[in-house]
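INFO  loader      accepted 1 record
INFO  loader      residues=104
INFO  predictor   begin
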Amino acid sequence: MEATLGLDKSYTNGLKRLVSRCCGLWSYRLAADNLQELCGIDLSHTTVREIAANTADEIAAEMANRSEEIRNAFQQAKGDTEFYADGTFVHIRNDEDKRRNGGK
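INFO  predictor   done
INFO  writer      dumping tokens
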């Protein structure tokens, strides 16, 4: 409808972030239902899917454009060298392909 009327169909970064987080937890339909119930944001499940897909594309493009910078910042960050998610762990390696926890 917005395109037919010549209106800009952009969403705020805050809304895109909220929609994307909801899609990480629930299906598009359930995310739309919960956005309505909890936030009073009325979006169809197809709009939720569209926003999430476009946001994923934006993130992928940003990561591709800044991959070296992101990798360097991650390697220089203070903190744990491993993180756990769903019972899985990931070793983080430095430029010399050694684990950051002392090269073990």
